[in-house]
Amino acid sequence: MSTQRIPLAGVIGTPIAHSRSPRLHGYWLRKYGIPGHYIPMEIASGDLEEAVRFLPRLGFVGVNVTIPHKEHVMAIADLVSDRAALIGSVNTLIFRPDGKIHGDNTDGYGFLENLRQGASDWDPKSGPAAVIGAGGAARAVLSSLIDAGAPEVRITNRTKNRAESLQQEFGQKITVYDWVQAGNMLDGAKTVVNASSLGMTGHPEMRIPLDGLGRDAVVTDLVYTPLETPLLAHAKSIGCRTVDGLGMLLYQAAPGFERWFDQKPEIDEELRRVVLG
Ligand code: NAP
């Protein structure tokens, strides 16, 4: 962190107005009395490289990266962490004092940490995990579940070939289930993850039957608007432990904040309230 200038961080993407990251980082900056700022920046794809290379000269110590730049920014970074390379996208850039741009992806970390904090006895090794969806978020979920020792990861997606591509990429622990038989993959699953946009406000509801799900399963949803999705409400009603998706958003932000501002931030109830607005 520069001692001569007020450190700046932010989030780049387009559109950017909906991003909750400024609220989140703004809360931490105020909480820890850090004289920095976190700024949302609308940057078009054609301007991406020029903008990223110029930001350190303006006093930026790093930025978060969101849609549609998460993949393209990998080619601009001088170094990419192993986990970002595995996931295939970058959500955090660190502008190092030596001038190098470091790209990382903290989505998988946020996902795991949210489950560990939200269901304290959750053990990824205890049995198969079942993942719904095969988009960008599912990639982070899959790689982190494998990394955490899940013995098998079952996956289903409306567009089956996207799930099959992930199977080819992530290897033998992945089993693909047909979308119309998605309920079958819940038999004996110990971790269930919705990594699709189903259940989000304004999107269709999730219709996968939970009949085969045991009460010992932990169910989480990446969707956090609403905070209690129909999937979580249903899982809770049959006795499963549930973890909402807001925590993933909060935990994925922490490593970037720590690197930029030399302060490990705390995820507390007040932060949840601030981010939910
Ligand atoms: P994405 O790359 O656009 O993927 C969307 C996924 O949802 C795909 O698997 C897609 O299936 C599926 N889907 C969309 N509409 C569907 C429908 N009508 N029926 C069945 N499946 C449908 O998006 P993403 O980045 O992976 O994000 C997925 C969700 O996770 C979003 O709701 C996002 O807000 C949330 N998310 C939350 C966090 C967090 O911190 N909590 C982080 C990242 C993402 P097809 O392949 O068939 O299109």
Question: Which tags fit this structure?
Answer:
18% strand; single chain; 6-stranded mixed sheet; alpha/beta; 277 residues; Rossmann fold; 12 strands
β-strand percent reads 15-25%
CATH superfamily grouping of the largest domain: NAD(P)-binding Rossmann-like Domain
Q: Provide the structure class.
A: alpha/beta
The stretches of 5 or more residues where confidence is low (pLDDT under 50) are none
Q: In percent, how helical is the residue content?
A: 25-40%
Terminus-to-terminus distance: 30 Å
Main sheet: which strands, in order across? 2-1-3-5-6-4
Task: Set down the secondary structure blueprint.
Elements: E1 8-13, H1 21-31, E2 37-42, H2 48-54, E3 60-65, E4 79-80, H3 82-87, E5 92-95, E6 101-104, H4 107-118, E7 129-132, H5 136-147, E8 153-156, H6 160-170, E9 174-177, E10 191-194, E11 218-221, H7 230-237, E12 241-243, H8 246-261, H9 269-276
The structure holds NADP nicotinamide-adenine-dinucleotide phosphate.
